[in-house]
Amino acid sequence: MTPSDRDATGLLTRPDPFVQLITPAGDRVRDAVYDPWVADVDLEVLGRLYRDMVVVRRIDTEATALQRQGELGLWPPLAGQEAAQIGSAHALRDDDFVFSSYREHALAWHRKVAPAELLSVWRGTAASGWNPYEHNMAVPQIIIGAQALHATGYAMGLRWEGSDAAAIAYFGDGATSEGDVNEALVFASSFDAPVVFFCQNNQWAISEPVGLQSKQAIARRADGFGMPGLRVDGNDVLAVLAATRFALDRARRGEGPSFIEAVTYRMGPHTTADDPKRYRGDAELAEWRERDPISRVLAYLDGSGVDVAGLEREATAEADRVAAELRAAITTLADPEPLSVFDHVYAEPNSHVERQRTNYARYLALFDEPEERGGAAAAAGPEASGRTEGGAR
After folding, report:
1. Above 70 in pLDDT, residue 7?
2. Out of 93, 279, 289, 363, which one is annotated catalytic?
3. Is residue 170 within a helix (H) or strand (E), and if so which, with residue range?
4. Which of the two ends of the chain, N or C, has the fewest CB atoms closer than 10 A to its terminal CB?
5. Which overall architecture, per CATH, does domain 3-330 show?
6. What is each CA distance from 74 to 160, 235, 271, 273, in whole angstroms?
7. For position 377, what pLDDT does the model report?
8. pLDDT in tens, 222-256
């Protein structure tokens, strides 16, 4: 990247290039603007970033296997996006709040979400995974792009309270076409909300390529909302760390929101219910394998004289331990009582929900043994047994 690609603040002035500090071959690229943001990242810290990426890739592999073995109903893989998630995660403070989509398992792991909490929603044993206020991370948002609005509202509250914490919203390239994301960008810009919009452009919105919905770099969309757009190599963990620190610093100093486009690639399916071979070829996949986020850091460390064989052993051992914890967590997830699906739908009693609960209890009673049916229907109330106060149907 040349100096002419940026303005005086370091923001990109052309849509094509992106911030890159470590090349796919493992070479260090010097950058006068972004190097200062990672001046504290020595070889030891890079080793930790490498180990974290190895661990979350193993989490992803293990969870995918659990789904294939019938232990999970669904799993959205993150393989290929480890640098985008781990790099940005390390830029956050504990009091920053994360609003994610359904693919940010690395963020959840980094914020110390327990394995059982990570898996419960995908096994169907809980409506959500964890207490958001214990980890300063909202539970995964399934509705595409809705988390951008949540992050903006939270950030506006932070500003009104005088806090220097920030919010960050993660979403994919497909979500940028959603109204929720664009509305969030309008509000965030209008009120100078301390929020970072982090788009992981993994090239595919399920089965549609990013070029179908965006004729230029997604980061350029920020221009129309009056906020800076940063385009970063999403497979370069060091560049992602630098760019996210840059954006968070703007937010903390009251300069408003920023938009980051992390250019990466989804190596696996959209979810385990998807078959990516139906819409993309092997050549494309092979090209992106050459840009693998984990191997490039290892190559850089190797060229810097680090004992990479020892580092790989440490990382593998840690990944094995976490994978074992993940698999063991499955045995701790008890199936909930069927009628509990109606709990906590509303804060106050609601007649419509109670009617649905009664009807469902009546349906479940059909599967009981004859002598048990009376008890199940009675427990659900008089409507379930077909009785009213007057004794008539």
Report:
1. no
2. 279
3. strand 167-172
4. C
5. 3-Layer(aba) Sandwich (3.40)
6. 39, 25, 7, 7
7. 52
8. 999 999 999 999 999 999 999 999 999 999 999 99
Task: State pTM to two decimals.
Answer: 0.87
Q: Reply yes or no on whether 387 is catalytic.
A: no
Choice among 6, 58, 159, 266 that is catalytic:
266
Assigned token pair, 285: 């996949």
- Tokens 């948002």 -> residue: 141
- Does residue 270 have an active-site annotation? yes
- Of the candidates 103, 111, 270, 362, the residue annotated as catalytic is 270
Average confidence (pLDDT) over 302-325: 97
Question: Residue 8's beta-bridge partner residues?
Answer: none
Phi, psi of 274 (to 5 degrees): -105, 150
Span(s) in the chain for CATH 3.40.50.970: 3-330
Alpha helices in the chain, H assignment, sequence order: 43-68, 82-89, 105-110, 115-123, 132-135, 146-161, 179-190, 237-252, 282-289, 293-303, 308-330, 351-365, 370-379
Q: Is 279 a catalytic residue?
A: yes
CA atoms within 13 A on the CB side of 255: 14
Region 322-341: what's the mean pLDDT?
93
